[in-house]
Amino acid sequence: MSSNLALYIPSPHAPFSLGHAEIPEPGPHELVIKNTSVALNPLDYKIQQSSAFPVSYPYIAGVSFAGTVEKVGSALQTKFRRLDRVAAGRISSHSEPGEGVFQQYVLAHEDAVAKLDETVSLDDASAVIPSIISVVGALHVCMGLSLPDLNHTHNQNHEKKILVYGGSSTLGMRAAEYAMQAGYTVVTTSSPANRAQVSRFCPQAVAIIDHTIPVEEALVKAIVSEGPYDYIFDAIGTPATTSIVAKAVLQLNCTSSTTTTTTIWSSRPGGTEDLLGGVQRRGESYPHFVEEDEGVRRWLFEEYLPLGLTSKTISVPDIEKVGGGLGSIPGLLDRMRGGGISGKKLVVDPWETEQF
Ligand SMILES: NC(=O)c1ccc[n+]([C@@H]2O[C@H](COP(=O)([O-])OP(=O)(O)OC[C@H]3O[C@@H](n4cnc5c(N)ncnc54)[C@H](OP(=O)(O)O)[C@@H]3O)[C@@H](O)[C@H]2O)c1
């Protein structure tokens, strides 16, 4: 444990820069993790581009990773041991350099660490973590869906239907799987290219609508024909997808006798926005709701994630493992930003970074 390489954002909007970082020391409830698997997420490039995220600089980005425990905080000596295999999500309120994920040794708080057995691949775990935290925050804490039951023994929600728009995004696949495991009836969308993967995540979906239909009216009609919906989650969250989903909701509301407001829960944070005809869009930073709820957080990191990954009840998205270590990340984020990644998660091993 002699040196630690990190990928920094030196100042707001500046290009990424490789450099040496201090090896963090764990506080009582923290672990230092030798980080061998970083999964890349859209937030990783958004944070470099936008001023909407209040972080201090130099900043080390990244939100999901996996590896082995290197050092254990004094209060965790009975819970963790050196070389335990773990996956972790970054707690969003933490932005100390040691907590950045794009580095070889990362400081993690026990609250957001899942212990893995030897059967679980570290790449699979880091690829799964960010979407699971967000979906639990969105579908359970914010939207009020039940928790899923991995044994499928208590699923009582079939009469309730959820539309997951953008089911071929990482977030959408996870939301569709989660809702299915919690017993809801799921309608989702995909491009034809990713349809098989969406079916793998959510084999019980009653419909997987092609969201690449070139005529918007036909897409809206297809969504309407599978409705009405008790819950709506737009995993893409762009103005264009909000508009498509809102048009479908308006048509459904016109044909129903209910006059209550319909909420489109969106992956784009920004609070609540009133659209036309009693439809509202609501978007939050969903991991925050998991961080705030100790019971849900413990269930997620101590039960659902480790048990679901071991039993393979939690599906893993297609993964592209890219060589080159931390130095490859800026180019990969450019690919993501340009829309060049479809239906897969990019994963990097920081220990493949060339020394300099
Ligand atoms: N608010 C939160 O807490 C939160 C949490 C996590 C993620 N997010 C946000 O949620 C969004 C999705 O994240 P992610 O990790 O799931 O991204 P991702 O896996 O990289 O999403 C890429 C996929 O989205 C689909 N897609 C892109 N544009 C689309 C469109 N116009 N209509 C339908 N599908 C489209 C594509 O599927 P096809 O190729 O099959 O069309 C593509 O495979 C990002 O903007 C991310 O920042 C928000």
Automatic annotation (TrEMBL):
Domain Alcohol dehydrogenase-like N-terminal, residue spans: 27-117
GO MF assignments: oxidoreductase activity, acting on NAD(P)H
The keyword Oxidoreductase belongs to this UniProt entry's keyword annotation: yes
Alphabetic keyword roster: Oxidoreductase
Pfam families according to UniProt: ADH_N
Domain of life assignment: Eukaryota
Family: Belongs to the zinc-containing alcohol dehydrogenase family.
Name assigned to this protein: Alcohol dehydrogenase-like N-terminal domain-containing protein
Organism encoding this protein: Penicilliopsis zonata CBS 506.65
